[in-house]
Amino acid sequence: MSRKPCCVGEGLKKGAWTMEEDKKLISYIYENGEGGWRDIPQKAGLKRCGKSCRLRWTNYLKPDIKRGEFSYEEEQIIIMLHASRGNKWSVMARHLPKRTDNEIKNYWNTHLKKRLIDQGLDPVTHKPVSSNPKQGMPKSSDVEDDSNPSNPDEHSQSRSMSPKSLPPSSSHNLPEIISSDGTPKNEGSLSSKKHCFKRTSSTSKLLNKVATRASSIANILSASMEGTLMSSTTLSPSLNEFSENSPFQMDEFDLFPHSSEHIVDHMKEDIGMLDIDLNNPEYDFSNFLEQFSHIEGEEAENSGGYNQDPIPSDVSSTSVDEDNMMPDITGWSNYLLDHSDFTSDTTQDYDAKDFFI
DNA sequence: AACAGTCTCAACCGCCTCGAG
DNA sequence: TCTCGAGGCGGTTGAGACTGT
């Protein structure tokens, strides 16, 4: 039995929405609220199907949607969540305040996915691609270019080259936050196409770096939650530089003022169940993620659904549940913070250029 | 200036889930 | 328990913008 498409109808308009249509939809929803999407087109005087109205509202018109460039932290959250959960865009959207699943999906497909591929990583498994020995193996010239320790700042603009000479994904390497001249590179900076970095051949190395940065994020979050976020808040060197030199606002991270401790404790319990040694700098973080995902999966099954997100199901894909936000990254980060040997060791040596080797 | 290739992302498509009756 | 429909979700498309030649 095939279902009749919901958007079959005479005279229904498709394609880009006009400003007039947007105004009609917005004014109708402001007066009558969301829901009953099938009836909205007729009541609002729109020649669109209800589904199209709902998507236009949830993905574009909704007032609390954050648009524009993804922040460095948002990128890392996406990468971490994708590594553990796969293409669960709606789940990611619940962890990223004011971002829609569609936007995250687009950003993954156009930027992050290509970046992983370019680094020789399978964007599905986040592991090195072994079938093609060329992938993940940087050209010797690339290594030479990027391994010059004498001037790490050159990792920004000095790597400028014509976009055509670069693989597409190289345009969004995570470390591209501060230009070599110190210019903040927030708006549009991360999509700059004029940079190139060494490629990693190890997922674990990548994830260890992500974990390191996650601990920095946790610092911000913790300080934000405690209302003590100040310039003195302990950050990794690169993140300090980032915050000082970019228009990035720390209060953006005051989005989690009520992070519930029990979630963090719960995550710590989960992590405690794992046989891991994060004090070991050589620890393969991908194992950690795999084990952690396994536990999550088991819990989801026990709670009645496979691969359920711990966040209540009544949370829409675009809404923000502050109490339950980011339990994963908070848990990981708090755990890593408790293992100062590991985090300090990696943060001290950290430089943006090393993030994606 | 014109053209071609590439990139971005809003929008669409179709299947899935879940709740109401 | 079954059916139906609304809404959710992930994959895909294509128009427009951008960039290089």
UniProtKB/TrEMBL annotation:
<keyword id="KW-0677">Repeat</keyword>
<feature type="compositionally biased region" description="Polar residues">
    <location>
        <begin position="180"/>
        <end position="191"/>
    </location>
</feature>
<feature type="compositionally biased region" description="Low complexity">
    <location>
        <begin position="158"/>
        <end position="171"/>
    </location>
</feature>
<keyword id="KW-0804">Transcription</keyword>
<feature type="domain" description="Myb-like">
    <location>
        <begin position="9"/>
        <end position="61"/>
    </location>
</feature>
<feature type="region of interest" description="Disordered">
    <location>
        <begin position="119"/>
        <end position="197"/>
    </location>
</feature>
<dbReference type="GO" id="GO:0005634">
    <property type="term" value="C:nucleus"/>
</dbReference>
<dbReference type="Pfam" id="PF00249">
    <property type="entry name" value="Myb_DNA-binding"/>
</dbReference>
<keyword id="KW-0805">Transcription regulation</keyword>
<feature type="domain" description="Myb-like">
    <location>
        <begin position="62"/>
        <end position="112"/>
    </location>
</feature>
<dbReference type="GO" id="GO:0000976">
    <property type="term" value="F:transcription cis-regulatory region binding"/>
</dbReference>
<protein>
    <submittedName>
        <fullName>Uncharacterized protein</fullName>
    </submittedName>
</protein>
<dbReference type="InterPro" id="IPR017930">
    <property type="entry name" value="Myb_dom"/>
</dbReference>
<dbReference type="InterPro" id="IPR001005">
    <property type="entry name" value="SANT/Myb"/>
</dbReference>
<dbReference type="GO" id="GO:0080090">
    <property type="term" value="P:regulation of primary metabolic process"/>
</dbReference>
<dbReference type="InterPro" id="IPR015495">
    <property type="entry name" value="Myb_TF_plants"/>
</dbReference>
<feature type="domain" description="HTH myb-type">
    <location>
        <begin position="66"/>
        <end position="116"/>
    </location>
</feature>
<keyword id="KW-0238">DNA-binding</keyword>
<keyword id="KW-0539">Nucleus</keyword>
<dbReference type="InterPro" id="IPR009057">
    <property type="entry name" value="Homeodomain-like_sf"/>
</dbReference>
<feature type="domain" description="HTH myb-type">
    <location>
        <begin position="9"/>
        <end position="65"/>
    </location>
</feature>
<feature type="region of interest" description="Disordered">
    <location>
        <begin position="299"/>
        <end position="319"/>
    </location>
</feature>
<comment type="subunit">
    <text>Can form complexes with MYC2, MYC3 or MYC4.</text>
</comment>
<dbReference type="GO" id="GO:0051707">
    <property type="term" value="P:response to other organism"/>
</dbReference>
